[in-house]
C-alpha cells in the first residue's frame, strides 16, 4: 500500500530518465548541465622545490627551508631518509624541536643509518639536550648495524673519515692540503685491505671505491670505477654504487681531458663553479640507469652553488 501512495520527486525522476530512458520521464524538466570537471592541478616540481629549499638554507631562512623541503618530500613518491633528515636540520635551526624530532623519526623509519654524521652535525645541536636525542641516535645506529651486517668495519671507518673530511656547506673553503694528505694515507690502507681479501660484500667495495674516487691519478679513478661496478653487481639495489660507477668514469675522462659522459663532475673556474664538458650523445635515460639525475638538474645545481654566499 505504501508503495502505491509514494510519488517520486522530480530529481529522482530525472535521474531515472537518464539511467533508463523511460518515456514516462520525457515530460519532466530538463536536467541541468553536468558540472565541469575540475581543472587538474599542475604537477609539483620536486627538484625545483628542493633547490629552493637548499637556497633558503644557504641564506639562513630556515623556516622557508623546512617548508620547501617538506612540500617536496610530500610530493616525491621516492622520498628517502636523506630527504626527511634535511627537513629535520632546517626545523632544528628554525627552533621547532617538535617538528625536527618528527622529521628525524621519519628519517629513521626510512632507514637513515649515518650515525656518525648525525652525531657531529651542528645543524642539530639544539636537539642534543632533549631526552629524545639519545633515542634518535640509538635508532640510527640500529639501522646502521642492520645494513652493515657482514661488512668490513675498518673499511667502513675509513669511508666515514673520508666523508667527514668533506663536510661543510662550501668545499672550496676546506684545507685541501690537509685533506689530501689524509686521502693518500686512506688509499694506502684500503689497498692493503683489498690486497688481503678484506672486501667481502657490496658495501665493502663501495666504501673502497669512494676512497679511490678521491685520489689524484687516473689509475685511482679507474680503480674506483671497477670497485663501484663490482659493488653494484653484488647488490643491484645499492643505488649509490651505480652513481659512483658513473662519477668515477666521468672523473677519469675529465682528467684525461675528454668530455664526461654523465654530468657528475664540476670545477671552479675564475672563482665560479661550472659543469665540466659533457658528451652530448649520452641521454638522460642512460643516466637514469646509473642513478644519475637528468643533465638539466646538474645545470641547476651549478646555479645553486654559485648563488651560495662565500
Q: What do you see in this structure?
A:
There is one protein chain. The protein is mostly helical and 310 residues long. It folds into 2 domains: 46-147, Serine Threonine Protein Phosphatase 5, Tetratricopeptide repeat, CATH 1.25.40; 153-307, Alpha Horseshoe (Serine Threonine Protein Phosphatase 5, Tetratricopeptide repeat). It is built from 15 helices and 2 strands. The chain has helices at residues 2-5, 10-20, 46-58, 62-75, 81-93, 97-109, 115-120, 131-147, 153-164, 176-195, 202-213, 218-234, 239-255, 284-289, 295-307, and strands spanning 266-269, 272-275. A two-stranded antiparallel sheet has the order 1-2. The chain is globular, with a radius of gyration of 28 Å. Mean pLDDT is 86; it is low at 1-31. Residues 1-26 form the signal peptide. This is Lipoprotein. Keywords: Signal.
Brief descriptors of the model:
61% helix; Lipoprotein; single chain; globular; Serine Threonine Protein Phosphatase 5, Tetratricopeptide repeat; disordered N terminus; two-stranded antiparallel sheet; mainly alpha; 2 domains; signal
Overall mean pLDDT score?
A: 86
The CATH architecture term of the largest domain is Alpha Horseshoe
The tally of strands reads 2
CATH topology of the largest domain, which one? Serine Threonine Protein Phosphatase 5, Tetratricopeptide repeat
Write down the secondary-structure element order.
HHHHHHHHHHHHHEEHH
Overall spatial form: globular
Strand order of the largest sheet: 1-2
Class inferred from helices and paired strands: mainly alpha
What is the level 1 CATH name of the largest domain? Mainly Alpha
Report low-confidence residues grouped into runs of 5 or more.
1-31
Count of alpha/pi helices: 15
Q: What Rg do the Cα atoms give?
A: 28 Å
Helix content: 55-70%
Query: What percentage of the residues does DSSP assign to strands (E)?
Result: under 5%
Total discrete domains: 2
Biggest beta sheet attributes: 2 strands, antiparallel
Signal peptide: 1-26
Organism: Myxococcus stipitatus (strain DSM 14675 / JCM 12634 / Mx s8)
Protein name: Lipoprotein
Keywords: Signal
Amino acid at each position: 500500500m505504501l508503495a502505491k501512495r509514494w510519488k517520486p520527486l522530480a530529481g529522482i525522476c530525472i535521474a531515472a530518465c537518464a539511467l533508463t530512458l523511460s518515456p514516462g520521464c520525457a515530460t519532466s524538466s530538463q536536467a541541468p548541465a553536468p558540472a565541469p570537471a575540475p581543472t587538474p592541478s599542475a604537477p609539483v616540481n620536486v627538484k625545483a622545490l628542493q633547490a629552493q629549499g637548499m637556497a633558503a638554507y644557504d641564506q639562513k631562512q630556515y623556516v622557508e627551508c623546512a617548508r620547501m623541503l617538506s612540500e617536496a618530500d610530500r610530493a616525491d613518491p621516492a622520498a628517502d631518509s636523506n630527504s626527511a633528515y634535511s627537513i629535520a636540520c632546517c626545523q632544528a635551526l628554525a627552533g621547532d624541536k617538535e617538528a625536527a624530532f618528527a622529521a628525524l623519526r621519519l628519517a629513521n623509519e626510512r632507514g637513515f643509518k649515518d650515525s656518525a654524521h648525525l652525531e657531529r652535525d651542528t645543524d642539530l645541536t639544539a636537539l642534543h639536550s632533549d631526552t629524545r636525542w639519545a633515542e634518535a641516535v640509538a635508532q640510527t645506529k640500529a639501522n646502521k648495524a642492520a645494513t652493515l651486517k657482514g661488512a668490513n668495519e675498518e673499511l667502513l671507518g675509513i669511508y666515514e673519515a673520508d666523508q667527514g673530511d668533506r663536510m661543510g656547506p662550501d668545499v672550496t673553503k676546506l684545507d685541501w692540503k690537509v685533506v689530501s694528505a689524509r686521502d693518500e694515507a686512506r688509499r694506502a690502507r684500503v689497498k692493503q685491505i683489498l690486497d688481503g681479501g678484506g672486501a667481502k660484500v657490496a658495501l665493502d667495495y663501495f666504501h673502497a671505491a669512494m676512497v679511490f674516487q678521491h685520489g689524484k691519478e687516473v689509475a685511482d679513478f679507474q680503480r674506483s670505477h671497477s670497485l663501484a661496478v663490482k659493488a653494484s653487481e653484488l647488490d643491484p639495489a645499492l643505488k649509490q654504487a651505480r652513481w659512483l660507477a658513473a662519477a668515477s668514469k666521468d672523473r677519469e675522462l675529465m682528467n684525461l681531458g675528454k668530455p664526461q659522459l654523465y654530468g657528475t663532475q664540476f670545477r671552479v673556474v675564475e672563482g665560479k663553479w661550472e659543469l665540466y664538458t659533457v658528451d652530448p650523445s649520452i641521454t638522460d635515460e642512460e643516466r637514469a640507469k646509473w642513478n644519475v639525475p637528468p643533465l638539466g638538474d646538474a645545470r641547476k645545481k651549478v646555479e645553486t652553488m654559485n648563488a651560495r654566499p662565500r
